[in-house]
Amino acid sequence: MGPIIRPRMISAPRGIGKSWLTHSILVAITRKLPIDSWKTENPVNCLFVDGEMSADELQERFRRLTKNLPNSQTRLDFMSAD
Q1: How many CA atoms lie within 13 A of 28 on its CB side?
Q2: Is the pTM above the cut of 0.90?
Q3: How many CA within 13 A on the CB side of residue 9?
């Protein structure tokens, strides 16, 4: 999602919405979807590593985020602390 989003870590204080932002970006870049004026140039494979959320909570969040969206064009893999 250039030129705004570059491959790097997103960091901020707890409770700001880093996870929601990151999850939304992952959904968009694996499905070639825009987020407002940010456009996905080329869908890419993604690995999301999470050390806080339970695997069940993570799965449920992505089910809700992707409901009624086109299928992913690339891989989106997860690594959870669970």
Answers
A1: 18
A2: no
A3: 4
